[in-house]
Design goal:
Oligomer: single chain
CATH architecture of the largest domain: Alpha-Beta Complex
Strand content: 15-25%
Structural class: alpha/beta
CATH superfamily of the largest domain: DHBP synthase
CATH class of the largest domain: Alpha Beta
Strand order of the largest sheet: 1-2-6-3-5-4-7-8-9
Order of helices and strands: HEEHEHHEEHEHEEHEHEEEHEH
Largest sheet: 9 strands, mixed
Distance between the termini: 31 Å
Bound molecules: threonylcarbamoyladenylate, magnesium ion
CATH topology of the largest domain: DHBP synthase
Length: 310
């Protein structure tokens, strides 16, 4: 076990020394490293067992920091007015921005966000450098929404700044600015409709084949140990992940939201999959989730978790 950082200052000291430290954001816990330190970023890939071609989100404390990393068009600036928040922007990288190549996997674009979490913002400001942070889980496993899940996932080998459970519980929405167009690369904690409504700009969906070149959209990416059956009624011997009104079930069961609230369901998604996994079932039946608003992100994660492993 590593010593846990007891304060933002202690966590910042670890990061400034080139070590990893997991930290809370409003979406999920991130496995942070100084994004300008190639060795530190490489140890993110090693610790997660993450394929090298899968670039990382760069977390900034404020817009001034973000502007040192990427070129902001007027449209990008408009989207950035939604920061801090659960929205990641993919923008052209600014040459000589100091980011380690491994952090962006050598792409000439960079994925940036300003998280809406006081500890995350204090931490980035205290480090004084942008932090590369993928979700703090071994590659291909569930994203953690508590410090305890991070500790368990990495068997206590990664220090964690504990900020309690994450509010959103699902990763950020990723938007690429393409000239005058906005394209959603990953559904996430902010619904596409909400972005459209708040900005008055249409957000297109990325075509499936484009998703292959947007790494990280690897099909099987959020896999629990158990297999998943989607849009299903539970059978004896299975575990059951319910949504809304659900009949009692004899086996391990969680309800994402008895009230049928998609926000609550998104927040509970990974925790409840973790819990059902820990209950030892080899199959989890998952109730249908409406494919609207945050249901889009929930169903995306569920489909990846259910995809054939290979
Ligand atoms: O909520 C979140 O976004 C969490 C918290 C910790 O901030 N982070 C997170 O990071 O989910 P990660 O590394 O698990 O997911 C990063 C995603 C991947 O799908 C990756 O392929 C994509 O961002 N990405 C990064 N840079 C990109 C780029 N230049 N172009 C397209 N996609 C990019
Ligand atoms: Mg992840």
């Amino acid at each position: 076990m590593t010593d846990e950082p007891k304060s933002v200052a202690e966590a910042a000291a670890l990061l400034r020394a080139g070590q990893l430290c997991a930290f809370p954001t409003e979406t999920v816990y991130g496995l942070g490293a100084d994004a300008t330190d190639a060795d530190a970023v490489l140890s993110i890939y090693e610790t997660k067992g993450r394929p090298r071609f899968n670039p990382l989100i760069i977390h900034c404390a404020d817009l001034a920091m973000a502007e040192t990393l990427a070129e902001f068009s007027p449209l990008a600036r408009r989207v950035a007015s939604l920061w801090p928040g659960s929205l990641t922007l993919v923008l052209p990288a600014r040459p000589g921005n100091g980011l380690a190549d491994v952090a962006t996997a050598g792409l000439d674009s960079v994925a940036i966000r300003i998280p809406d979490h006081p500890l995350a913002l204090q931490l980035i400001a205290a480090v004084g450098r942008p932090l590369a942070a993928p979700s703090a889980n071994p590659s291909g496993r569930l994203s953690p929404t508590t410090a305890e899940q991070v500790r368990r996932g990495f068997a206590g080998r990664v220090p964690v700044l504990d900020g309690g459970p994450c509010q959103a519980g699902v990763e950020s929405t990723i938007i690429r600015v393409e000239g005058e167009r906005l394209v959603q690369l990953r559904a996430g904690a902010v619904a596409r409709e909400e972005i459209e409504r708040r900005l008055g700009v249409a957000v297109a969906l990325a075509e499936k084949h484009v998703a292959v070149t947007a790494p990280g959209m690897l099909v099987s990416h959020y896999a629990p140990n158990a297999l998943l059956r989607l849009n299903a009624e539970p059978r004896p011997g299975e575990a059951y992940l319910a949504f809304g009104n659900a009949a009692a079930f004899a086996g391990p069961m969680r309800n994402l939201s008895p009230a049928g609230d998609l926000h609550e369901a998104a927040r509970n998604l990974f925790s409840m999959l973790h819990e059902l996994d820990a209950a030892g079932a080899s199959m989890i039946a998952v109730a249908p989730i409406p494919d609207e608003r945050l249901g889009e992100a929930i169903n995306d994660r569920l489909q990846r978790a259910a995809a054939p492993r290979g």
